[in-house]
Write a structure and sequence with these properties.
368 residues, Rossmann fold, two-stranded antiparallel sheet, 43% helix
């Protein structure tokens, strides 16, 4: 694999763990480095899940922390720096300080690096792409494994003739011929980059991968420094069900906080769990997940509540002390039960699908 460095971030959630399992199983020849950004505010189940994953991988997951020289844990260190101002969707300093900056600091040199990110094939979003020129992001779970900047570079109108020539060198099958015709078509408002990309992928993801690989030769990008790359022939697209299969078949299983726990409200039975990895007080979690935390991890909830004593709140519309009033918790459970019953008629059988309103695993999934 030449002198290229391969890194894969573990968030403590299902998707990144499944990608680690996938890469270890299908591409053991890649000398992968696994890392975990520890905020100091994770659930005990998260640490146990990473320990279980290490057993399967047969190697340690490197623990990284921001502000390593501080007497405080990473979150509390930066909370003090920000004067007690809690992070929010509008001021997401926790992602920047506890995740992004430590990730960039992993790479003190300029060695070419491929960073593997667990964006699933059924997700319509981009993962974190480093601004450092020596780090290139790839998405093995997607039909299109390349980041947007790479696609724009390859499919630009100025590259039409060059790409068609590369395709001619790769083969002369009907697929290659059709691919070359698409390559020569100029981008326009009616034939935009996304449409062109999807049409080429419909013909063959593997051929498209080889086109990208050959077109990037001679650049300073990490992929150009790899002599052989088995992922080029990968045509799989792993969705949410596939993630759960990977976890179950490996024996690692799901993180314990995904396990449904029964509750009763007004004579009806419902289930709740956590839908994402990350800090136990993540501001992205839903009201029912705060109730889950209060009932299943009362000490952690009390710690989250203590942060609100400074005058800032985790939610714009409700304080935690208001949320845990008996009548309010009953109302939240009733709303969740109604939503779950409606969702189960049309969505996946996995409870975490019904519970989660947004894709991803919280702030960590933006880049690992």
């Amino acid at each position: 694999m030449s002198n290229v460095r391969h890194v894969l971030g573990i968030s403590g959630g299902k998707d990144s763990a499944a990608l680690a399992i996938y890469m270890r199983t299908h591409y053991p020849e890649i000398n992968m480095e696994y890392y975990f950004m520890d905020t100091g505010k994770e659930l005990d189940e998260t640490y146990q899940f990473i320990n279980d994953l290490e057993i399967f991988l047969g190697m340690k997951v490197l623990r990284l922390e921001a502000a390593q020289d501080s007497p405080l844990d990473p979150f509390d260190h930066y909370l003090a720096m920000y004067g007690g101002y809690l992070p929010s969707a509008q001021a997401r300093w926790c992602t920047r300080k506890l995740k992004l900056e430590p990730f960039e600091q992993m790479f003190v040199g300029d060695e070419p690096t491929l960073s593997y990110v667990a964006i699933r094939g059924d997700e319509d979003r981009e993962g974190y792409v480093s601004h450092k020129s020596n780090i290139q992001t790839v998405f093995p779970f997607r039909r299109n494994m390349w980041s947007k900047d790479i696609i724009t570079m390859v499919l630009g109108n100025e590259n039409q003739t060059r790409i068609a020539g590369i395709i001619a060198q790769l083969g002369d099958t009907p697929q290659h011929q059709a691919m070359a015709e698409l390559a020569r078509r100029e981008l326009s408002p009616k034939f935009n980059q996304t449409r062109k990309l999807n049409m080429m992928l419909d013909l063959s993801p593997a051929i498209f991968n080889h086109i990208v690989y050959e077109s990037l030769q001679g650049t300073d990008l990490a992929i150009a420094q790899v002599d052989e790359y088995a992922l080029l022939d990968n045509e799989e697209s792993v969705d949410r069900d596939g993630v759960f299969r990977l976890l179950d078949e490996s024996g690692v299983g799901k993180p314990r906080y995904y396990e449904p726990i029964e509750f009763e409200v007004n004579g009806q039975t419902g289930f709740y769990n956590r839908s994402r990895s990350g800090c136990y007080f993540c501001f992205y979690q839903q009201k029912i997940e705060w109730v889950w935390l209060y009932e299943q991890h009362p000490k952690r909830f009390a710690q989250a509540l203590e942060y609100e004593k400074e005058g800032f709140t985790w939610m714009d519309d409700e304080r935690l002390e208001e949320l845990i009033a008996p009548q309010r918790m009953m109302q939240i459970k009733e709303m969740h039960l109604k939503k779950s019953n409606n969702g189960s008629k049309t969505k996946s059988a996995f409870l975490v699908d019904v519970l989660a309103e947004s894709e991803g695993e919280g702030c960590t999934a933006c880049f690992i």
